[in-house]
């Protein structure tokens, strides 16, 4: 590799497989020693697609040598990692949700009320205004597109180090989210407020799916996990809030996308308490988790640079127009 920024990105890219492999190993071990079962077709097909993308990235890189285009290597390779980690953490969150630790809904509700947050009147206001409800529901769904959009945007603009730091921060935040959710499980605000999904007319929340699956996990009736049927069951910390911060940070240096990212992700955060049935402490916890993740990956990069890894302090600055990979 002839460019220091590319070398740093390549090293980070290879290191990012470690947390992905660790989470995958935990999932497979949990399935092996428990009565959980993964539906093989959906999970296997998704994992196979991720592996194919990763293999293409590596084969292309080493076959082309110094003529490698880093945009191809890092777009395909990072998409592979993102697909694989998202396929892993869905079932893993369900395994974590099967713990029999006491639900913390009333505790979270008390914390929210101590902060002056009362979700019920807010939810009823949104329910009475279908346009607002539709807008928030759309915003809540913004968690999906950046997972593929960010790798493409950052590779096309040659923010290669930023992209690998984003993946590292994403993996760290996901791992912490799942671990914490197992220790302090909760169902959601409407459960804490003793409101049913039928309490609202136009408000389309994810609460009904959360309630159904968490209760089934805790009573042991849900053990067959179908990848594309899994709901978001984690309450604290909110990964919607964490991902919104990570998405904004990832695209912050990209002119033309930064403002759009901020608008979309602020809307996603605003939608999280109502559409996602999250407590305000969930949202705050998710934001803080994302901030800690960003600080940690940047400090790790600084440690790499200070330790004499093949990089210069310019690694996070503007990228040269032309970069080439050397497979040596």
Description:
There is one protein chain. This protein is mainly alpha-helical. It has one domain. It has helices at 4-15, 17-33, 40-64, 70-96, 105-114, 119-127, 130-140, 146-156, 160-183, 189-192, 207-219, 239-251, 258-275, 280-306, and strands spanning 37-38, 224-225. The chain has a two-stranded parallel ribbon. The longest helix is centred in the N-terminal third of the chain and has 27 residues, at 70-96. The radius of gyration is 21 Å and the shape is globular. Residues 310-328 have low confidence and may be disordered.
Coarse morphology: globular
What strand order characterises the main sheet? 1-2
Order of helices and strands: HHEHHHHHHHHHEHHH
Structural class: mainly alpha
Query: Percentage of helical residues?
Result: 55-70%
- Rounded to an integer in angstroms, the radius of gyration calculated over CA atoms is 21 Å
- Cα end-to-end separation: 7 Å
Summarize model confidence as the mean pLDDT. Answer: 89
Count of DSSP E strands? 2
Assess the beta-strand content as a share of residues. under 5%
Overall tally of structural domains: 1
**Largest sheet composition:** 2 strands, parallel
Which blocks of ≥5 consecutive residues have pLDDT under 50? 310-328
Number of helical elements: 14
